[in-house]
Amino acid sequence: MTTSSSPTVHSHVTPASPLFLREDEVRRGIEMLYFGYSALMQSIEQLLEAQGLGRAHHRALYFISRKPDLTIGELLRLLSITKQSLGRVLNDLIEQGYIETQPGVRDRRQKMLRLSSTGKTLEAELFRALREKMATAYGQAGQGSVTGFWRVLEGLIANGDRQMVLGLQAR
Question: Long-range CB contacts (< 8 A, 24+ apart) of 90-97?
Answer without folding.
Answer: 90/60, 92/52, 92/53, 92/57, 93/53, 93/57, 93/60, 93/61, 93/119, 96/51, 96/52, 96/53
